Each structure stands twice: as C-alpha cells, then as structure tokens.
Amino acid sequence: MNAEVSKPNRSSRQCSPTCTGGARAALLPLGEVDLTGSPFVVGAMFGQQGGATTPAQVQVAWEDQSNINRFNKLNNEWHELQARVQRQERLTEDLEDASNELMLVDDDEVRFAMSDCLFVRLPQDEVEVKLQEEAERVKKDYESTKEEVEKIGAEMAMLKTRLYEKFGNAINLEEEV
C-alpha cells in the first residue's frame, strides 16, 4: 500500500485526500462534521441502513456532543449495574439455599464462612441470624441498584429520543447483539 501522508494545510484546515487511506477528511470548525466521500465514517460509524441516505453534512453542536457523551457514560454505568443486579440475584439464591440447608442440619454447631478462607464453628441459631441479616442487606442493596438501573434507563431513553430526533438514522444508539 502506497499511502501518502501529509501534514494538514493550516490555512485551508484540510488534509490531503490520502491522509486517511483514501477517504477525504477535513478539519472543520467546531460543530460541523463533513461526511462526504468518507465511506468508513458513513458506513461504520453512522450505520447507513436500508438504503437510507445520510446528509452530506451533519451539524453537531456542543450540546449534542455532550448528550452523546452522557448517553455513552450512562450506557456503561447501566451495564455495570445490570451485572451487579445479576450478582445480587445469585447471592440471594445462595443465601436462600444456605438457609434451607441449615434447617436440615442436626448439629448444634455449624461451620460458618467468615471470609474466603476462614471458617468458624458457631451455634446454629447465631448462623441463622447472620444469614437473615446478610439476606436483608443484599435485598436492600438489590432494590437500590434496581432503582438506579431504572433511573439511568429513563435518562438514556430521554437522551436517545432527543438524539434520534436531531440526527435520525445518522446515529446509532442501539446495542449490538
């Protein structure tokens, strides 16, 4: 591949047509994105779909870019919280299983895990109390996490609506499966 790379001409604020591997790139004033002649940007970044055409120029205001960044941040946080909810659901099931197993134990004392590698023998009644306390703590944490997920989801939906109204199919905010 014989690609010529040159420095941008500061007076015209454009780089040579070959500086991006053949796609025309321009350094435009803040708020303006030039999509003409750039199949990579139109096809991959802006997801040209169903034969729909993308405008030659899309005006991206500072507020729009802030909304896009906010949506991205919320999306990452939403995914982290979803993973946390799944961990809490598994922990709730594990605590319930431990409580059920404890009912079947005939001994007065049972081994209780204080940490990953520390087990102590405690009276069965004390272990039942500890399991109940832990289950209540996990339930409260689970409920607050679910509320946070719903709050973030609502804000994401509002931002998604606002951004799709402005950019139409020139922006893709959907999850890739």
Automatic annotation (TrEMBL):
Keywords: Chaperone, Coiled coil. InterPro entries: PFD_beta-like, PFDN4, Prefoldin. GO terms for molecular function: unfolded protein binding. Residues 71-162 form a coiled coil. GO terms for cellular component: cytoplasm; prefoldin complex. It comes from the Eukaryota. Gene3D superfamilies: 1.10.287.370. One of its GO terms (biological process) is response to cold. Belongs to the prefoldin subunit beta family. This is Prefoldin subunit 4. It comes from Ostreobium quekettii. The lineage of its organism: Eukaryota, Viridiplantae, Chlorophyta, core chlorophytes, Ulvophyceae.
